[in-house]
Amino acid sequence: MIDADSRTTFANCKMGEILGRQPDEMLGMHLFEFMDEDGRKIAEDNLERRRQGISEQHEFKFQRKDGAFVWALLGTNPIHDDNGAYCGALAMVTDITERKRTEAALAHYATELEQSNQDLEQFAYVASHDLQEPLRMVASYVQLLARQYQGKLDAEADQYIGYAVDGAKRMQRLIQDLLTLSRISTRPQTMRNIDCETVLAEALKNLQIVIEDSGASLTHAPLPVVYADQGQLVQLFQNLIGNALKFHGDTPPQVHIEAELEPGDGAVEPPHWLFRISDNGIGIDPQYFDRIFEIFQRLHNRDEYSGTGIGLAICRRIVERHGGHIGVISTPGHGATFFFTLPVNVTNALNDCDSDRRG
Amino acid sequence: MHSTTVILIVEDNPGDVNLLRRALSGVRSVSLFVVNDGAAAIEFLRHEGEYGGAPRPNLLLLDLSLPKMDGHQVLAVVKGDPSLKSIPVVILSGSNAPNDISRAYALNANCYIAKPIDLDDYDRVIKAFEQFWLQIAQLPGSETE
């Protein structure tokens, strides 16, 4: 409680606790004595409005007796005497230091995140321009060596050249995949309504050679229209189907793609499309179900199955950027089913239909 | 019919120049000129300085990452100059970044080729380039228009 001159006339224990003082030592102290320069300025303005009878809440930084600052929510209600003259105010102080600390931490993380996104973009740029150039030189000239000197040196030399060519090519695949992964995070998505039948057709076109070579049979149920980034969705289908084709056993791969509408639980989970890509391949041990979506995690020797260990990390990032999640179920030796969800975006879907009609 | 086609290669990496010369070595009636940076490319095209007697190229093979003036800048100057803009510019770059590609076309590049990393692919691509640009396509003449 303060009087008309903003001097403390009453303070409770809680107030004392917040400001690090005994309640009775605060008596007579001016409200400004608990504030820093900025706080005083705001408080002065407020005083004027309080005299006019306005009740308000403000966030203030108060200084404790030990010099430390605490953030508090200060609510002031003016008190007037019978003649209507301002004679002080009842001030309610709530400690919000913790909330302020969280807010500051969040702002800090946001800045950090933005910085790391910029770093990632910078990496993508460096990788596409500067890393590939020298690598291409190494790869090209080692191949040139191989071409011109194969059989003219000894067998060991031929083998060394082979290792070098192989290493350079693997490095280039790694750079390409890392680039794809970083672009998914840094490039803005172009979201619109897309027919998954078209997406599938494009993914299969890109996989045409692998499909023919493996003698695979592919089937699919009718696929829905979803609200997504087309390029990323093609990449997602292509990676998952590509995996299904790659990790096959002795028999030619059989891959089935389907989607169904899941109603959601009406609370936490909204309605979404659940896509499944099932194969008859070698399957995955359940202990690796999570690990395979992490970058550079491979379960197989390069001689058995080639790859950079980035493909499924790309899939996960695409699905998560679309607000869905991805997973796998499998019994080793009996194929695997990769599934992912995409939200049903009703509002956007409708807007898009409208603009399509107008356009 | 078989007049010599003049190609100006703008490429700072000697390894790349050598790969190009190799891949184009069997092609007749082609005369290759090489400059190593973007500023030199502009001087060559404008017959300035040491390039006073340089011929006008029928085609420009332009790398993007270049010292002094990068490929995009060279492209902007060439396509912004009424006396040079009719020269077809084929970008031959190590980058396949979507940004680089769209920027090049926005600056009126006539074709964008990303250098393949595999030597067999590289030779195939340069062969296809040669077949299209030197055998199929009709190029503007060497005279200043």
Uncertain segments of chain A of ≥5 residues (pLDDT<50)?
Answer: 348-359
Count the domains of chain A: 3
Average predicted local confidence, pLDDT of chain B: 92
- CATH topology type of the largest domain in chain A: Heat Shock Protein 90
- Gyration radius of chain A, in Å: 33 Å
Helix content class of chain A: 40-55%
Report the β-strand fraction of chain B as a percent range: 15-25%
Measured distance between first and last alpha carbons of chain B: 20 Å
For this structure, what is the CATH homologous superfamily of chain B? Response regulator
CATH architecture of chain B: 3-Layer(aba) Sandwich
* Total helical segments of chain B: 5
Oligomer: heterodimer
The 3D shape of chain A can be described as elongated
Task: Throw out a few tags for this protein.
heterodimer, A: 359 residues, alpha+beta, Beta-Lactamase, Heat Shock Protein 90, 3 domains, five-stranded mixed sheet, 21% strand, elongated, disordered C terminus, B: 145 residues, alpha/beta, Rossmann fold, five-stranded parallel sheet, 5 helices, 5 strands, 17% strand, globular
Descriptive report:
Chain A has 359 residues and is of the alpha+beta class. Chain A has helices at 13-19, 23-26, 37-51, 97-149, 155-186, 196-206, 208-214, 230-246, 311-321, 346-358, and strands at residues 2-3, 56-63, 69-80, 86-95, 191-195, 217-220, 225-229, 254-262, 272-279, 326-330, 336-343. Chain A folds into 3 domains: 2-95, PAS domain (Beta-Lactamase, 2-Layer Sandwich), CATH 3.30.450; 112-187; 190-359, Heat Shock Protein 90 (2-Layer Sandwich). Helices cover 47% and strands 21% of the residues of chain A. Chain A has a 5-stranded mixed β-sheet. In chain A, strands 1-4-3-2 form a 4-stranded antiparallel β-sheet. Chain B has one domain (5-135): Rossmann fold (3-Layer(aba) Sandwich), CATH 3.40.50.2300. Chain B is globular, with a radius of gyration of 14 Å. The mean pLDDT of chain B is 92. The interface between A and B is medium-sized, with 22 and 18 residues.
